[in-house]
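Entry type: protein chain
Record version: 2
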Amino acid sequence: MSKALRLGTRRSRLALAQSRQVADAVSRVTGRSVELVEITTYGDVSREQLAQIGGTGVFVTALRDALAKGEVDFAVHSLKDLPTTQPEELVLAAVPVREDPRDVLVARDALKFTDLPRGARIGTGSPRRMAQLNAYARGHGLDIETVAIRGNVDTRLGYVHDGALDAVVLAAAGLSRIGRLDEVTDFLSIDTVLPAPGQGALAIECAADHADLIATLGELDDPFTRVAVTAERSLLAALEAGCSAPVGALADLLADGQIVKEMRLRGVVGTTDGSRMVQQSTTGPVPETHDQAMMLGRGLAAEMLAQGAAGLMGERAQ
């Protein structure tokens, strides 16, 4: 019997749920058992707002350290948590098929976003969500207050259940993975709130010198998801923004019937009060290589920077 593969994961309920899904898939591909190694990250223990502690890498560094030390064989991350620079000693072995990238509203009394009462308090830990929710409200005569919150999914939903907030905004994919999509009261349109770059996708990472494992994990890779998130993350990197910056991006495939024709990349950046926004999109052939996907993101970022995007992000990520 081959010894079990060790999968490094954060300890949160969501992280464990998505890591178990990957573990099952790896077991099917390899015939080997996979054991979960739970690792506490700085982002899990800090009580500060993500935007204040930098956002970038706070949920990732401890997992990457464990990989580098050989304490785990591979790690699973929410791709939107990954810094845009990839360490040379690690490789992104697989990006599986993406789940629904949209954000969702969980509101009291089963309310939709546009039905919330005047002065409704909406909780989110994301400057990106705040910027876009406030911009939409400004443009549509809604009166809302966005409230900065932290905590796991249960904590955030609890703010609505106990009446502290009228609604919270979360990622559809996260609620789906822990089996709580039935609590969603409104799926927010991409035209209302663009998701975080990479939202809904997972990243499977391992050491760059484990060629056999890289090849095995590669069987879980979805090429369309990979080029889409590569374009989104390239946009984020070219804006010099960390994953706590108010940047939304989504690359989606435009199909004619069953034939995929083109890829559209949309990007947005704005001030958290929603008063100033830069929103751009570009459409082109579906990238066939990593470099082509990177170029798509960089090109759109250049257009956004020309429109003044840099001045809307507050502190630039270092």
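Comment: The two ends are 47 Å apart (CA to CA).
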